[in-house]
Amino acid sequence: MPSCANPCVLYPASVLCRGLGAQLNEGTQPGRGNPRIWNWISGVCDTGSMFLCPSLAATGEDGGSQPGGEGGSSNKGNGRSPDDWLDQLVRLVSQAAGDAGDAERALSQQAQSNLSRLRQWASENGWVRGPGSGPETYGVTNDAGQFEWRLKIKLEPSLRPGLQSGSAVPRFDARLAPGRYINPFTGEVGGRSVGTHIPLDFGF
Amino acid sequence: MAEEDRVSALIGILLSSSARPDERDDAAIDLGRLGGQRAVDALLSVARDPRVDPALAGTSGESLAEIALRSGRLDEAWLEGLVPTARRELIEWVRRERPDFLK
Asked: Is A126 on the interface with B (CB under 8 A)?
């Protein structure tokens, strides 16, 4: 596992997500401190990657030890124990996974059907799941190793004043390249007006 | 809502760390549609911030391209300091539509 002392790093799930029952310290850190059973909540490791940031990341072992482990405290300036950090991380990840699941379950039948078709469309195009904690995205990795999105799914409606009315419903954006958008349900190609804020319950 | 008030609201969403990522993304898109100097300044601040989610920076860069293409002019100063995703989004769209802007 990468060092948690380096904040705001994107950790691929294949690296971060250990098998159920794996010990957190088992072979991944110097062998001091408290071994922990590292169990992921169902669904957490399906997203491909996740960020650990300063507000979440534990400092790891810095030559001291952890509360309950060998000797005094090893927290660097935050006054919180590793258990607190771990609890907070699990709580936040669980909440995020739960929010997305709730939003998906709240979709109409038409929207759920379209969502399945969109994910299938992305798969058929060979697009991969994008990184980050934002909307569910699919796209390609360019020659420079940068992710370029092609499909962006926004399940949660927003009623924030100022946003256009299309944001008030579950929606998606689809494009072929920057500035070149498509409505995959009609085949229409054009600018952003064609391929952004398309309602997920789009009937066709 | 008057357009100026709407721009202010959208800038508030775009720059808010408490807004959801999808809301900030939509705000960046909407600001590209509205344009104007205040929208440009807000989009540039996001497109130049390495701490911002690259996806949001990219959407901001794409919105800057939309504004440039609609106004018929790309201010070269916009390109300074953009994070890679924002720069790529802006340049790719402008190069396809108006390669003369980048000479």
From this structure: no
pLDDT tens sequence across A142-152? 888 889 999 99
Q: Is A157 exposed, middle or buried (0-12, 13-18, 19+ CB in 10 A)?
A: middle
Q: What is the pTM of this model?
A: 0.69
The complex's ipTM works out to 0.94
* C-beta neighbour count of A11 within 10 angstroms: 16
For chain B, domain boundaries: 3-102
Q: Pick the closest to residue A45 from A84, A12, A9, A21 (CA basis).
A: A12
The CA-to-CA distance between both ends of chain B, in Å, stands at 39
Q: How far is A109 from chain B (nearest CA, A)?
A: 22
Asked if B93 lies within 8 A of A178 by C-beta distance, the reply is: yes
Work out the minimum CA distance from A163 to partner chain B, whole angstroms.
6
Percent of chain A exceeding pLDDT 90 equals 43
